[in-house]
Design goal:
Radius of gyration of chain A: 26 Å
Largest sheet of chain A: 5 strands, mixed
Order of helices and strands of chain A: HHHHHHHHHEHHEEEHEEHHHHEHEHH
Number of helices of chain A: 19
Strand content of chain A: 5-15%
Oligomer: homotetramer
Largest interface: A-B, 82 and 82 residues
Chain lengths: 450, 450, 450, 450
C-alpha cells in the first residue's frame, strides 16, 4: 500500500470540493429544485448527472422552509415505487415463489428516491450536502411523519456509504488544524469546552487523548469523537478530572477514562459509530500506552432524576418507603449539594437507588431505562461502579441528582456481555453494584436473576 | 477544505490496511468460512464484526474452487430473504396497499446477504477483498447461474460504494509509483504496452496524458484508465500514433485523442465508470490545454469482422452482392494488408460496409451490433469518421478487417446525442459517415431515418 | 518534480526530530557540555558526531546561566583559529601573494567553531537547538562583548543555512495547525493579537491574508510573517483596519495593505528575511487576486516621538519655531487625542514635521533616523503618504505622537528606488510628501535634492 | 512536530521549482551570463537577486564549453578577495594580533564568489543548478587547475548546505515514483542493474532493502544510495547474491549485507555522505529487523589487480617468489576462471596475497592502497573476510582478479576502530585475515604491529 500516492490521490477529492465552492452559479437558468430533481432521474440525468446534481444542490440551498417541504413532499409522492407494479409483482410471487419472481418483486420495490440520492451524490460535495439535507428532513419529520419513507431511503444509503470500513480514525491534538478544533469545541455535547485554553488542556499529550471518526467525503467534519483521560485510578467524579493539572504519577497511567463521547452530525442520526469508535480507541491506546490495564467510562445518567422524581411523586411507590421519600426531600432544598452533612445523609440511599434503577427498572421491551446505559451495555461493557456525588454541576443535578457511573470495557468480556444483554436483556454489572442493588428495598420486586 | 489534515486522515486508511497485511493469522482456531459467515450475521457479529470479518477473509483466501462454490452456495440458499415472511408481507400489501405495508414488504425483502457483505467490509482491506470475491463469483456464475442472486446483492452494494461521488481522478505520469505503473502495463486491454520504455513514451507530458479513477478503499489499484494523445489532427490510424515521436507542431495541440480505455477490476464488471471518466478528462484537459478544440476517440470495431464474415458466408446476403463477395475474398489471401494494390481495391467497399454496419445493423433491441459503438453512443458521442486501414495488426485484422473509427465528444451535443440514442435508438453520425452509409447497397433495406 | 514522493521524503525529517523528543538520555555518562564539545571536534567526533552532538544538546539544555557563559567562553577561547598559524600564513602571503598562499591563509583562518557548529547540526533537531543557543548568546553578549567572535561564526553559518533558496513561503489560515497559530499570536510584535477570535478575523480569506517563511529544519516555527488586508483604498489609520467587518466592496479589492511584519526567532536576529518575504507575497498576491493594483504598507514610525520631543526640549531648535513649540504642548495635555478641536489644531503641523523627519533628519551615515523607514526604503519602497492621526493607541501616541505612514511597493520602481537609496542615500517619496517637506520651516536647512 | 503542515509547507518548494520549469525566458533582454553575474553582486543584486539569479541560470544553460570556461574564469579572477585589502589586513594582524584585527583579516578574505553563489541560490531550483555547474567545473579543472579557488568556494558552501542535519534518509521500494527508480538504475555504479525486473528483485521487501539520502532542495535526485540483502550468513560471492531467489530461511535473517553503495551527483564529489548513510541504515535496520546480528559489506577491491600485476612485473619483487609468479601466470590464461582445477591452484596464494595487500601495502601517507578499504576502515569498519573467488565477472577479474572482501560494521567497535585507523593508521582486521597476512611471504618485511 502506497502512502504518498494515496495522499495525492485524495487531494483530488479536496480539489473537486474546492471547485464547487469556487463555482459561481452560472446563468441560474433553472432554479427550480423540484423540476431539476425530476430531470436528474430522467434521460438527461443519465448523461448530465453531475451537472444537474450540482444545480439541485445550489437550488436547494436557496429554498426556504416551505420550499424544502415541497421538495421532500415531491420526493415522497412522486419518487416512490410504482404501486401497481409492486402489486403485480407481489401477486406473481405469491402465486409462484421462485428466485425469479422474488427478483422481480425486489426490482419493483426499488425506490427511485435511492437512485435520486445516488445521482445527487455525483456532485462535488454531494455527500456533505445530503447529510445537511437530512438534517432539514429530520426537523420536518416531526410535523410531517408521512415523509418517513424518504428518510428510510436516505438511511438505507447512509448505511452503505458510512460503512465502518470507510471510516477513518484520527487522533485530534494541538497540531490539528484550527478549523477542525473549532468544530470539536462546538460539537462537544457532554461536558462543554470553555474556549481554546480548556481545549488545549483536554488535548495535552501528557495525559489526554482525543480521537474522531472521519469520512473521506466529509473531511472537514468529524462524525463522532471521544475524549479520554489517562489516570491512575478509576475516577468517580467529573469535577477535577477535566480541570486537573497533570499528576506526576501518570508517567505510566493504568486507567483510560472515556469521559465524553459526542456525535457531530445531526444528519447522521441513527447511523451508529460509537460502538466502533470506543473499541478502536481501546485497541489503539492499549498498543500506544502499554501500562494501561483498565478501560472505563465516566458517564452521565441522564434518566435517573426523572425516574427518581416520578417515584417520589407516585402515590404509593413500590420502591421508596415514606421515610426514604422524606430523606429525598433534601434534594429540593437550597444548597444541599455544597453541604457535607446533607451529602452524607443522601449518599447511601442514592447509591442503592441508582443500583436499583440500573438493574431493575426496565422499559417495556426489557431494556434498561437509561439511554446511556443502553448504549454501553449494548456495546458489551459492564456497569462497574456507582459514583455519588459524581457531578454536582447544575446539569448533573438536574439530570441525575449528582450521579455518575463507570462502564468497564474489558476486551475479553465484551462479546459475552453483549450476548447476555442482547439475548437475555441481562444488565451485566460488577459484584459491588449487584450487591448494592440487592438491598431489599421492596419485597414486591422479583429477585434478580444473575 | 483542509488539504493537509485530509491527507493525514487518509493515511490512517493506509495504516489500517497495512496492519492487515502484517497480521499473522493467529491461532487459526476457526478456519471454516461458512461457519464464520453465519456468526458474522449473528449476535457475535454485532459486537465482534471487524474481527470475524477479518477471519472470514483469511479463511476464504485458503479455499479451493470447491470450497468457494460451497461458500457462495451457502450465501445463496441460507442468507436469502425468508420466503414465508415475504409471502405474508406481499399478501398484506396486496390486500391493503399503504406506505406501512409497502415498508413492511420492503423490509421482508431485505437480503441478509447485503448485511453480510456490509459487515464483511468492516475488516481492513475488506472492500478490495470483496471485489476479488466477486471475480471468483463471476467465474462460478457461468456454470452455476443459480448464484445470480448473490451477485445481484453485491452489485447493489457496489452501486452505492463505488458511486461516482467517491471516485477520484488521478493523472498517471512518470512520477507515479512504480507499482501503480506496473498495473497500468498489466491492465492495458486495447493496445498492449510493451515494457517500461513504451509506457514512458505513453506518459510523456509533452503530448500524452493518462488518467485513472481510484477509490479511497482500493488505493493501490486503478479502477479504469484512459490514454490520450495530444495531436494536431484527428488521426485515422493507430499505427504511428502510439509509437510517434512527438512532433514539434504539438506545442498548441488542437485535438485530444482517447486511444485506449481499459477497465482494471474484473470484480467490478457491470459497474460503469467509463462515461464519467471520459467526461471528466474532457473537462480537465480543456482547462489545462486551452488550445484543444476537438475531443475524439480512435476506437477499435471489435464486431465488424464477425459480422462481415457472416454476410460473406450467408447463402443469399441482403447486403453483399456476388461481385462484392468476390472482392472481399482478398481478405483471405496471404499478405493483402501489405500490398498497396489490394488495399486500394478493398478500401471503398470496406468503408461503405463499415458505415452500413454502424448505421443499419442492429441487435434485437434496436441497438447497434458493435459493443464499443454502444458504449460511446450511449455516452452521447457521435460516430465521426470511418478509417480504413486503421489497424493492420494481427488483432486489428482479425477483429475488424483493419477498420478503426473515431467517436467525437462535443460537450455541447453530448446531452442531445445521448437522448437521440437512448430514446429513439438513433446512431448519431457525422454527415460524411451518413453519406457513406447511403450508398444504396441493397434495395431491400429500408431508408435510414435521420 | 515529484510532489508526493517529496512529501514522504520530508516526513522523515519529522520522524527524526520526533525520535529526538522520545529519546531518553541513556546512561547520562557524560553530562559535561564543555568536555563533550571538545570531543565533538576530536577523532571521536568524526565517527560518532551525531551521537555526541545529541549529548551536547542535552547537556546544554541543563546548563544554568553560569554554565552557558562558561560554555561560550570555551568556544571563544579554545575553538578559535591558531594565532601562530594565522601569523605565519599571513606573513607568507605578504611576502609572496599568490593563489596558493591566499588559500593557505584562508585555511589557517577557518574557525574550528564553525566546524563545531556544523557537527552540532548532525543531531536531530540540531538547527533549532543552535538557533535557541544563539538566543542565549545574544543575551550574554550585552555583558560579554568578547563573545562576539563566537556570534560571528554562527552568523556566518546561518547565512548559508537560512539562504532564501531554502526558505518556504506558506499561507497561514484558519486551517493551519493550532500550534502554529498559537505561535503567530505569540510572535505578533506590531499590533497585538487579542486571542483566537481576533486571529480568526485576521485570517478571514474574504479580505485578509497572512504569510510566513519556514525552514525545513525549523518546521514548527515560522521565521517571519506578514499580515495583509485587502481593501479598496490606501488606509491612513490602523484603527478600524484591524477590527473592520469586511466591506462588500472588497469583492475586487484594489489595494493590498501590509499592516504588520513580525520576526519570530530572536536567535536569527540580523539574518534578514523581510525583504524577500514582502516581494514574494507581492508576487503571489498579484497572481491570486488580479484586481490588486497597489501594494502598500501601513507602518508605524517608532522614532518620531523621540525625535520630536528632543527638538521640543532643545534650547534653540533649528526645526521648531517658538509658536510651534507652544502648539505642540498640546501633546502633553490629557485627552487631546479624543478632542476634535485639538486634533484639528495639531494636524497640519505634525504632518509637516513628519515629512521633515523622514526627508531631512539623518543619522551620521546619511540614512534616515527611522528604523522602519530604513527597512522599507532599503527594500526599494517609496514613502507614499503621511497619515495623522493614524494610530491613537497608547503605544502609537508614545512612539509616534499618533503618526503612521504608507510605504509603496511598486514592482517596476523597486530596483530604481533601492539604488537611489543605497547609492546616494536618497529617500524616495511621493510628490505630496516631498511637497509637505518643502514647507520652509527652517531657513537654515539646506535645500532638498530631489 | 507537525507532519501534515510540514508536508504542505514543503510542497511550496516543489511549486516554486515547478514555476521555474514553466517559466519562459522572457524578453531574453540580457543573455550574457558574465555580465549578469556582475550585476548579481552589485546593488541590483541586493534588490533583484532572485530574478537575476534565475536569468544567470538560464543564460548559463545556453553556454557552450568555451562560454562556461569564460564564465568560471571571470569568477576566478574578478570575484576573488581584494589582494591589497588582504595584504593590509594581514600586516595589521601581524603587527598587532587581536580579535579585532583577526576579524578584519577574516572579512578581507571573504570571497565575493561565495556571496555570488549564495545569491545564485535565491533562484528556484538554484541548488540543483549549482550542483550541475560544479559538474562542469570539475571537468574543466582537469585542464584548468587555476580554477581551483572557485571550486574551493563551492565546496565550502556545499559543506554547509549539505550538512548531514539537512539530509533525509528514504527507503526506496517498488512504490517509489518511477522517475526516482529510473535514476537508481542509472546511478548504480558497482553492480549494474539490468532493467526494471532486476531492479524489482533488488527492492523485494522480503529480503532486500535500498535506502537513499535526499536533500530538500534536490528532491528528485538521490545523493547516494545503498543496496542491502538480508541473508543468513555472510556471503563471499556476489554471484548468486544479486540474482538469488529468496530463500525460505530468511524469515528471520541474521545478516544484512551492504553490497552496493553509489554516489549519484558528480557535482557533489568530495562531500562525503557514505559514512552517515551506512551508520543510519545500520541503526534503522537493527530496529526494523530485530533478528539481524551482523552488518557487513560485500565489497570490491578495485586496486588489487593493479598492485598484483605491478609486483608480477617487478624485476625483484619483495612480495612474490619466482614460483608464486609462475603460479600467477595462470591469471593470463584463457578460461582459468571457469576451470575448477586452476581455481583450486590459485586460491591459497591469492588469499594470502590479498591479506598482505590490505595489511602491509600502504600509500606514502600510511593509508592502505585500496580506496574502498580506506573508505570503510575510515568509517570504523574492520576487514572481516577475504573471499576468493568472489566476483568472476569480467570487471571483477580485471579489477581484482576475482577478489571480494567483507567489512564488518559492529556498532560497539566503530569508534575504537576508527580511532585506531585515524590515529595510528592501523588496519583493523579479523583474526583470520591477520593470520592469513602473517604467512611469511617476505622476510624483508617488518613484522606487523597488531
Amino acid at each position: 500500500m502506497n502512502v504518498s500516492f494515496f495522499r495525492e490521490l485524495l487531494d483530488s477529492i479536496v480539489d473537486r470540493s474546492r471547485a464547487l465552492t469556487a463555482l459561481t452559479l452560472g446563468n441560474g437558468a433553472n432554479d427550480d429544485a423540484v423540476e431539476l430533481a425530476r430531470q436528474l432521474l430522467s434521460r438527461r440525468g443519465e448523461s448530465s448527472g453531475a451537472i444537474l446534481a450540482q444545480q439541485i444542490l445550489n437550488a436547494y440551498r436557496r429554498l426556504d422552509q416551505a420550499g424544502k417541504l415541497a421538495f421532500f413532499n415531491m420526493l415522497s409522492t412522486d419518487f416512490m415505487p410504482d404501486t401497481n407494479a409492486v402489486l403485480q409483482a407481489a401477486e406473481r410471487f405469491s402465486k409462484s415463489p421462485s428466485s425469479s419472481t422474488l427478483r422481480a418483486l425486489s426490482t419493483a420495490l426499488d425506490s427511485p428516491r435511492q437512485e435520486f440520492f445516488r445521482r445527487l451524490n455525483f456532485a462535488p460535495g454531494g455527500t456533505q450536502a445530503i447529510v445537511r439535507m437530512r438534517e432539514d428532513l429530520l426537523d420536518l419529520l416531526k410535523e410531517h411523519p408521512d415523509l418517513r419513507a424518504v428518510d428510510d431511503d436516505i438511511v438505507h444509503l447512509f448505511g452503505s456509504w458510512f460503512n465502518r470500513g470507510f471510516l477513518v480514525l484520527r487522533r485530534i491534538d494541538w497540531s490539528t488544524p484550527a478549523d477542525i478544533l473549532e468544530k470539536i469545541i462546538q460539537y462537544e455535547a457532554v461536558h462543554e469546552i470553555n474556549g481554546w485554553d480548556d481545549l488545549k488542556r483536554r488535548l495535552d499529550p501528557h495525559d489526554r487523548r482525543c480521537y474522531a471518526f472521519f469520512h473521506p467525503s466529509l473531511v472537514d467534519d468529524p462524525l463522532i469523537f471521544v475524549e479520554v483521560a489517562l489516570v491512575d485510578d478509576v475516577p468517580g467524579s467529573i469535577d477535577g478530572l477535566i480541570t486537573a493539572e497533570a499528576a506526576a504519577s501518570t508517567e505510566a497511567p493504568r486507567t483510560a477514562v472515556f469521559y465524553s463521547i459526542s456525535n457531530c452530525q445531526k444528519g447522521l442520526a441513527g447511523i451508529s459509530f460509537g460502538n466502533f469508535l470506543i473499541k478502536q480507541v481501546v485497541t489503539d491506546l492499549a498498543r500506544e500506552v502499554p501500562s494501561l490495564r483498565t478501560f472505563v467510562t465516566l458517564s452521565p445518567v441522564p434518566g435517573f432524576r426523572a425516574w427518581l422524581d416520578g417515584e417520589r411523586r407516585r402515590e404509593s411507590s413500590e420502591v421508596l418507603s415514606p421515610s426514604e421519600i422524606a430523606t429525598l426531600a433534601v434534594l429540593d432544598e437550597e444548597g444541599w449539594h455544597t453541604d457535607p452533612e446533607r451529602l452524607k445523609l443522601l449518599k447511601p440511599l442514592l447509591c442503592e437507588l441508582a443500583a436499583h434503577y440500573f438493574l431493575r427498572e426496565k422499559r417495556a421491551n426489557g431494556q434498561p431505562l437509561d439511554p446511556v446505559a443502553r448504549f454501553h451495555l449494548g456495546n458489551g461493557a459492564r456497569l462497574e461502579r456507582i459514583n455519588w456525588p459524581g457531578d454536582l454541576s447544575p446539569r448533573g443535578i438536574a439530570q441525575a441528582a449528582g450521579l455518575m457511573v463507570n462502564y468497564l470495557y474489558d476486551p475479553k468480556d465484551i462479546e459475552k456481555n453483549h450476548e447476555a444483554y442482547a439475548e437475555h436483556g441481562r444488565v451485566v454489572a460488577s459484584p459491588s453494584v449487584v450487591k448494592l442493588s440487592k438491598v431489599n428495598r421492596s419485597k414486591r420486586l422479583p429477585a434478580l436473576a444473575s
